[in-house]
Amino acid sequence: xxxxxxxxxxxxxxxxxxxxxxxxxxxxxxxxxxxxxxxxxxxxxxxxxxxxxxxxxxxxxxxxxxxxxxxxxxxxxxxxxxxxxxxxxxxxxxxxxxxxxxxxxxxxxxxxxxxxxxxxxxxxxxxxxxxxxxxxxxxxxxxxxxxxxxxxxxxxxxxxxxxxxxxxxxxxxxxxxxxxxxxxxxxxxxxxxx
Length: 194
Ligand SMILES: Nc1nc2c(ncn2[C@@H]2O[C@H](COP(=O)(O)OP(=O)(O)OP(=O)(O)O)[C@@H](O)[C@H]2O)c(=O)[nH]1
Hints:
The protein is mainly alpha-helical. 52% of the residues lie in helices and 9% in strands. The protein contains seven helices and three strands; from the N terminus they run E-H-E-H-H-E-H-H-H-H. The protein has helices at 18-34, 53-56, 66-76, 91-112, 120-129, 144-163, 168-184, and strands at residues 8-14, 40-46, 79-82. Helix 1 links the parallel strand 1 (8-14) and strand 2 (40-46). Helix 6 (144-163) packs antiparallel against helix 7 (168-184). The longest helix has 22 residues, at 91-112. The radius of gyration is 17 Å and the shape is globular. It starts with 7 loop residues before the first strand and ends in a 10-residue tail after the last helix. Bound molecules: guanosine-5'-triphosphate (GTP). Residues 14, 46-47, 49-50, 84-86 line the site of guanosine-5'-triphosphate (GTP). This is Ras-related protein Rab-31. Belongs to the small GTPase superfamily. Rab family.
């Protein structure tokens, strides 16, 4: 289990191969069963440069619709973004999102009480590795006010989750949405975000 003690996992599939999306689901299952309880999961649909219309004629067509990935990500409470390792699309945004998510978890756990953090060894090491930073207007296409609102909403929902454990399941989707909204606004060639 080389993901033991991990704060976040990036699970990558190839948007031009449906098989890779099935494999991704197996990895998510594995992580949920054996990974740290509060691990941040991020799904990256790689090779989004190939969804460009010019590639459709050369048979490199998209097999996994972004809608499917988004629905699946929401069902498991993960961040989702389409990337291109080749053209460096959304790579920074992906890691900004993960950093933001981890930072908020850690800030919150320190604010409330040490016992509210499910895995303190993760939180402490990540806290020093990733000092809390949030996307600025210059590095993110979303406005500052929108960022601030989403961040506040995310923190509010997280507090509710901690204080009201019985609402955990319902709120998991909601707080992931607040965070994910920032990432979901990123667009990739060939498919419009909804
Ligand atoms: N167009 C495109 N090609 C990519 C991208 N990322 C990786 N590749 C190419 O995909 C091929 C496989 O890359 P690897 O890093 O070996 O990935 P892999 O998962 O081991 O292999 P595959 O299952 O074949 O994708 C290489 O030819 C890469 O250049 C991307 O974002 N866009």
